[in-house]
Amino acid sequence: MKTDDLIRGLAADARPTRGLGTGLALGLAVGLAGALALFALILAPRAGMPGLLVEPRILLKFAVTLSLAAAAGLTALRLVRPGARVGEGAWLLLLPLAVLAAGVVAQLLVTPPESWMPGLMGHYALYCATLVPLLSAPLLGAVLLALRRGAPSHPALAGAAAGLLAGGLGAALYALHCIDDSPLFVLAWYGIAIAIVTAAGALIGRRLLAW
Amino acid sequence: MDERERRWAQLMQGALAGDSAAYERLLREIAPALRLVVQRRLARLGAPTAECEDIVQETLLAVHLKRQSWRSGDPLGPWLWTIARNKMIDHLRRRGRRVEVSVEDFAEVLAAPEERPGTEAAEVEKHLALLPEKQRDVLRAVAVEGSSIGETADRMQMTQGAVRVSLHRAFASLSARLRNDG
């Protein structure tokens, strides 16, 4: 096949397409629907939930996880666009970390040292470390599929960003249920849970997003 | 240069909206530019320049399959050269050569002569022959023989939609086969 012929064929395959950002948004909507269905199936919002959102430590959980998801989503989009400057928006990922660090420091300042360890271990650490990845799974799948239309120079890295995005949203969802409110708990167990989803994203993305 | 960028971006915008004439014009402008850069890179690396046309075609396939990853408003050049560079590195790596090629190496080219080599891309040809029969027949009819989607549908007794699907699948599987080769 001559290159001229290939071009003629490619042109015949032209049709209206939607952008990558729109595709990711659609993927997120589908993944979120799946995650909400899972949540409804196996979990329930904790007692007094919408009202509890005014409590700083509870608000912190949502601020950390949702800002992480937003930063990871923007990073993922940048990583799958050829020619985009990757480092440019990386500092955004520091934002959720800074929010969490502020929460941890505040907790250490206002609570006595003997309460730190019980706070860190919480009541349902293992539930957190397993349920967050579970809730994140449909999100991760949908996000990775949406990103397949992209062309990352580093597929594993783009997959990891997809994992951070899915993990952040999954963790925010779990926070609706979770009664462990110490920022130390969030640092340790939400951290572990999101790291698991991120690693899964990197592993799957390495193959799935290669092009 | 700026003017070329503007024109390319405009044509690509048309292509993403489904304008196949604009898309064809764009690809016909891109191909000789790609060919020139790839040839130079290959020569500098001491690699056989016979592989040039394979790399050009692999890049065009990637441009096609990944065109949604270009964001309208961005210049097309950096996007295109990054894809070309990655495809060239992949291609050489499959042949056991490890190479470093920077995007800047690709971007430096200003103008390319209108050159239409008659050579076929050997590797693409090899994988084309291995495609499922229907995909291959549709691809040959539309690309090589220049039949329209409608004519191909009539001749092969398929619906136009089925022809379009087969054509798209042919490009996707061709690209995947090239990537996984060796």
Automatic annotation (TrEMBL), chain A:
The molecule here is called DUF1109 domain-containing protein
InterPro entries associated with the record: NrsF (IPR009495)
For this UniProt record, the keywords arranged alphabetically read as follows: Membrane, Transmembrane, Transmembrane helix
- One Pfam annotation reads NrsF
Q: Which organism is it from?
A: Ancylobacter koreensis
The residues that cross the membrane are: 20-43, 58-80, 92-112, 124-147, 156-175, 187-205
Lineage of source species: Bacteria, Pseudomonadati, Pseudomonadota, Alphaproteobacteria, Hyphomicrobiales
From TrEMBL, chain B:
What are the residue boundaries of the RNA polymerase sigma-70 region domain, all occurrences included?
38-98
Query: Looking at the keywords, is Heme present?
Result: no
Query: Where's the RNA polymerase sigma factor 70 region 4 type domain?
Result: 125-173
Query: Which InterPro entries does the UniProt record give?
Result: RNA_pol_sigma-70-like, RNA_pol_sigma-70_dom, RNA_pol_sigma70_r2, RNA_pol_sigma70_r4_t2, RNA_pol_sigma_r2, RNA_pol_sigma_r3/r4-like, WH-like_DNA-bd_sf
**Entry's Pfam families?**
Sigma70_r2 (PF04542), Sigma70_r4_2 (PF08281)
Q: Does the keyword Calcium apply?
A: no
> What name goes with this protein?
Sigma-70 family RNA polymerase sigma factor
